[in-house]
Amino acid sequence: MTALNSARNTAFIRLRQEGRTDEVARRLVEAIELGLFAEGQQLPSESELALQLGVATVTLREALVVLRQRGLIETRRGRNGGSFVCAPVELPEALLLQRLREMSGPDLRDLGDEQTAISGTAARLAARRSSPEQQARIGQHIETLRQAGSRLARHRADARFHIEVAAAAQSLRLTHAEMRLQSEIGELLWMEAAGGGDITLVEQEHQAILQALVAGDPVLAGALAEAHVTRGIKRLISLRLELLAADPD
């Protein structure tokens, strides 16, 4: 199983039977925006996708309408028709800066606390449970990050590293939580204003986490993952304060 398939399969943790359309749409948006579906790839059939998510087909169809309206998928008719993933669009940094400016300080800290808990726990469990094959896939995402040439590509490679670590922990709930957090805050970390143009430190931190996983050291792996997340959140908090200080209003 490839890294793409491994991570993508975790996107479809079954929702509760009363799962609402917006929840289904959010789950699919996360999978597409994080690159778990490649550009031009056809989504599973409506019946198959609804079965994987554990929702009614009509609920899935309503969610797909949301994705089409957002330009994330297009529907083609005919013999080879279906829903296909559209080319990703990188948001202007000005919009991301505005998003960060509008976040409250407590919300940003809470997100950091949650991600620290999720990533740290996932790394500790992955150090105990991950296989050599899973460790190799994690390493592939470090190499992808090294070669990434755009902010979107760096964000996706970084997100996939963390998601793969959670998948290696063999916990669907941790993996889904990591996906949600990466979708919510991950791209902000790669803004030029937040130091996202320099991947050297992030790459070194990823390598250190992987080495701890390979060594089977859960204490070190968890501590490294938590420190990695904390440093990123601190960068965003500092940048947000700079933005507020420069705002004449």
From TrEMBL:
Entry annotated with the keyword Lyase = no
Q: Which Pfam families match?
A: FCD, GntR
Which controlled-vocabulary keywords does the entry list? DNA-binding, Transcription, Transcription regulation
Q: Where is the signal peptide?
A: none
Q: What would you give as a GO molecular function for this chain, any one?
A: DNA binding
Could you tell me which PROSITE patterns the record lists for this protein? Answer: HTH_GNTR
Q: Which domain of life is it from?
A: Bacteria
Q: What is this protein called?
A: FadR family transcriptional regulator
Protein source organism: Pseudomonas bharatica CSV86
Lineage, highest ranks first: Bacteria, Pseudomonadati, Pseudomonadota, Gammaproteobacteria, Pseudomonadales
